[in-house]
Amino acid sequence: MAYARVVTFEGVGKDRIEEMRREMQEGDPPEGLPAKEIIVLHDAEAEKSVAIVFFDTEDDYRQGDEVLNAMPAGDTPGRRTSVAKYEVPIRMTM
After folding, report:
1. Check: CATH 3.30.70.100 for 2-88?
2. Mean pLDDT, the chain, as a whole number?
């Protein structure tokens, strides 16, 4: 079963999202991050964001959680307000 790390942020402006988009498209993922997919949702009006990081296994999730928790606060979209772990029983692209 796959797992998702779901993190919410506040204080995320449009400029920061655009900066992150460029960094993610041009750069490599953090070293040691075994993520399979990353989705970032943004509510520009409320300056809130949700990052969903998918992992294939629980061991990958643990490793990814450690890597992401060790990142400097300046690398995040804004002020982190929550982190949650979810199982991913259904995943489909259309």
Report:
1. yes
2. 93
